[in-house]
């Protein structure tokens, strides 16, 4: 997993596998979200997904349900009450005992703190769960959502986001934000 994070250079790492793999990464505390696919097929005896996990700090929030005639996909966001560290590569800004609403408020505060003319990446806002930042932005109105960009400077909301950023004087390189000039240092 540490090699995957190093190779991803700040982007998301997606791992596909069965119950054994998920249990191993859950026990290590390195899962931000997972999708559970339920299909009406019995290929064998199956495995109990959470057997052997003795951690009591795991919290799951169902974030999506996608149904088809062949399977149902349940997506869960993962939360925990203790900070994580994957071989020193990923430090979670989560606060011990932080509940879902406090975490949402912290994300909103970090986005509101981005001054005009600057940007942050999803990972700058919450390195442990950049997708959660996107979810919070999609559900929160009246904040400067356009100042949050992908790790490579690309714009998830395209032309509308570009217009707002240019109006604020954010420097661009082609279709991407010039992160060397416009990115706020993560520690500010």
Radius of gyration: 18 Å
Give the percentage of residues in beta strands: 15-25%
Helix content: 25-40%
Distance between the termini: 28 Å
Overview of this protein structure:
- It contains seven helices and seven strands, in the order ααβββαβααβαββα.
- It is α+β, with helices and mostly antiparallel strands and 188 residues long.
- It has two domains: 2-80, 3-Layer(aba) Sandwich (Dihydrofolate Reductase, subunit A); 100-182, Arc Repressor Mutant, subunit A.
In short:
The chain has seven helices and seven strands. It is an alpha+beta fold and 188 residues long.
Keywords:
single chain, two-stranded parallel ribbon, Arc Repressor Mutant, subunit A, 188 residues, Dihydrofolate Reductase, subunit A, elongated, 2 domains, three-stranded antiparallel β-sheet, alpha+beta, 7 helices
Write the layout of secondary structure elements.
Blueprint: H1 2-8, H2 19-28, E1 33-38, E2 58-67, E3 72-80, H3 100-112, E4 120-121, H4 122-125, H5 130-139, E5 148-149, H6 158-167, E6 172-173, E7 176-177, H7 179-182
Parallel strand pairs: 4-5
Antiparallel strand pairs: 1-3, 2-3, 6-7
